[in-house]
Design goal:
The chain has about 210 residues and is of the alpha/beta class. It has a single domain, classed as 2-enoyl-CoA Hydratase, Chain A, domain 1 (Alpha-Beta Complex), CATH 3.90.226.10. The chain is about 55% helix and about 15% strand. Helix 1 crosses helix 11.
Amino acid sequence: MFFIQLIISSTFSAGADLSTVYNLSTASQKSAIDEFVFDKLSRGMTAPMYCSKPVACSLDGHTIAGGLMLALSCDFIAIGTRKPFRIGITGPIVGIPYPMKAVQLVRHQIEPQLAYRLLVDANLFSSNEFPIRCQRGEQPDELAQQWLQMISQRPLEGFRVTKQKYWSDLLRLDSLDNSQEKFEYFQAVTSQECLQAMKNALTKTKN
């Protein structure tokens, strides 16, 4: 059983760092961008779907970009209700495209029209209103741990088989050649308009 609670400055994060993407893009380091985005980041965000054991997460702070992807990859999501926080995807604001696996993950887990609004418009939603399969409560950690305890009482082989089938369409993406996708991603993030947008966002964050 696994319980995920990645809180960095009150944010549920998967480690997606805009400054890293900006620095690599400015230097036009394609191989480094490929490794960071398609190996480390993409694999990290979707790691729970590869795990044969149950994985639960607890959201009690802003869940943005990679954090949302990571949450959507989990088997159980608990959302805190003590204080509303933001949930959404921000990459499109600065022109950063998402890897195919991330796009398909959002489409797989969220109603199509809402998924499109997240991926294209970069809409942010209140945690109290975000329509997602989850349980809400004042103590999300306890909800996640209670679910894990409940699941642990069952034989897990059937769980593993069902989970593998549920994610099978996304897992098949690993066997596809993504060289064209990597090229398109590199072209997008090294474009002058994207570099300027990332720079502006980072400057705004510092101020």
